[in-house]
Amino acid sequence: MMQMAIVFGPFFAWLQTTRIATTVAESLLLTAALSSIHLIGFTLLMGGAVVSNLRLLGVLFPQRPILEVTGPTGRGIVLGLVVSVATGLLLFSARAPAAIENGVFQVKMLLLVAAAVFHFGLHRKVTRRAPAMPVLVRLTGALGLTLWFGVALAGCAFILLE
């Protein structure tokens, strides 16, 4: 990870000096508003992920077809992800060099990428397959929950340990 800071360091240093980054950094109100919207987006994402993966585990709505539950929750996940990434990029821009060197932030970003790739890859394939093997469905739900909760825990740790 240290190589990423070395390779992209000048870019992140420049990013932090852009007008939008300095505006965010200099405004406590704007930072608070962006943080609030970021949290709302992540709450929407996590709500969808929890419901969707608990359905795959058979804990929630076991009588409902998988797609009946994962279709609407998938839209919530996409919307929440878009809001979280957009606001996260703005918040990141204000402190890019420091954030990119933070190990907890790096873990959060790795988990976020892994969770998104898993969700839009294997998770979607399993939920759209008719009928998938029950063990594969449950494993998908367990791994999905683990990845998304990992993102949430790493995000909390980043806030607390920053």
Short account of what is shown:
This protein is mainly α.
How many strands appear in the DSSP assignment?
0
Radius of gyration: 18 Å
Biggest β-sheet: count, sense, barrel? none
Q: Which class best fits the helix and strand makeup?
A: mainly alpha
Tell me the β content: under 5%
> Cα distance, first to last residue?
18 Å
Oligomeric nature of the chains? single chain
So how many helices? 7
Please tell me the total number of domains. 1
pLDDT < 50 stretches: none
**Which word captures the global form?**
elongated
Summarize the amount of helix as a percent range. Answer: over 70%
How much is the average pLDDT?
Answer: 93
Series of H and E elements: HHHHHHH
Question: In words, what does this structure look like?
Answer:
It is built from seven helices and no strands. Helix 2 crosses helix 4, helix 3 runs antiparallel to helix 4 and helix 6 runs antiparallel to helix 7. The chain has 162 residues and is mainly α. It has one domain. The model has no long low-confidence stretch (mean pLDDT 93).
